[in-house]
Amino acid sequence: MFALVLLAPCACASGDLRIGVFGLFHPQRLVVSSLPAQPVMVTMGSRRFVLREGQSASLVREGSQVRIQIHEESFLAAEVNVADPWGKGTDFQLSLPGKITRRFRGRLDVRCLAEELAPVVEMNLETAVASAVAAESAPGASLEALKAQAVATRSYYLASPRRHRNFDFCDTTHCQFLRGTPDSLPAQAAAATRGMVLMYEGAVIPALFTGSCGGRTRTLAEVRLAPSGYPYFSVPCDFCRQHAAHWSARLDREEAAALASHSEGDRLRLGRILGWDAVPGNNYELIGEGEVVRVEGSGQGHGVGLCQLGAAGMAGQGFGFQAILAHYYPNTVLGTPDH
Questions:
Q1: Is residue 248 part of a domain?
Q2: Which among 77, 110, 124, 207 is most buried, taking Cβ atoms within 10 Å?
Q3: Residue 214 lies in a domain
């Protein structure tokens, strides 16, 4: 069982997070649209325009500036800001034409960085938690599994150092996936666990989690990840052992040599060359076949911390989120910052 303790507030517990979005697409053009009953204010230096229901503004990179097309007018600006008419966060839609459209809640800043547009959404911590839970969790996960993911996500956000130069986190596997405005169940999970974090020896841990461990979670040393303040333990995961997807790959000996130590860094480097589906997880065996090596594995991800597939299975068997967290993060306590 977890002990529930009151903690001193974390440094950013009551603040907002700045999250870079769409970075994988290296956008050159974006479209910002208002939503029903949600007028938005678009600010470019001293100029301000209101987008009402269904209206849009187009943003295009032009050199080191942003060309904005709005209400049949065109302007160049160093930065474009989107908020509600009072300068606060609001719901809006952001699109990369032909590739992706998402609805976000917060404030949007767009400027040019490294020859591309860099959209950054500033959002409340709890909105970020719910949005990440919506994107990260196993399909069909129940409320208790989502609550466990919410606590892990919140702990990660609060305990991790800023991971990018121009914003705090991104919406990729480098940090955490992010869905726009979260669905109702992830939002309920975030609200039900509001403020709750995982603690070890008096400090919030930057909780790691994985898609499916394949039957046993790993320690940091096993996958050659740097030590952290929390000594991740290897724990059995029976549901994942029975239900994780199995996969195989055939690599040449040089490619397979990079996998011999089960280094997560080496696996990711190989993934950048061969594609992320080539070796999707760190639970595998190498089987020699002359100049070709067969890789047989199951599961997805580094295998450290909470197993999302296993957590969904535990919740389906009647375990609550506290028991799920206690299983995957032994010797931690569940705490609530004292605001």
A1: yes
A2: 207
A3: yes
Containing structural domain, residue 282: 208-304
In a domain, 57, yes or no: yes
| Of 124, 152, 175, the domain-final residue | 124
Alpha-carbon torsion (150, 300, 268, 171), positive or negative: negative
Q: What CATH number is given to the structural domain containing 53?
A: 2.60.200
Q: What is the residue type of 175?
A: C
Query: What phi and psi values does residue 253 have, to the nearest 5 degrees?
Result: -65, -35
Q: How many independent structural domains does the chain possess?
A: 2
Which residues neighbour 15 within 8 Å (Cβ) at sequence distance 6 or greater?
125
Element (H, E) at 191: helix 184-192
> Which strands make up the sheet holding 246-252, listed edge to edge?
246-252, 292-298, 284-289
The amino acid present at 158, given as its one-letter code, is L
Say which DSSP state 25 is in: G
Enclosing H/E stretch for 41: strand 40-44
The verdict on residue 23 lying in a domain is yes
152-203 residue pLDDT tens: 999 988 887 666 677 777 776 656 666 655 558 888 999 999 999 999 999 9
Higher pLDDT, 125 or 313: 313
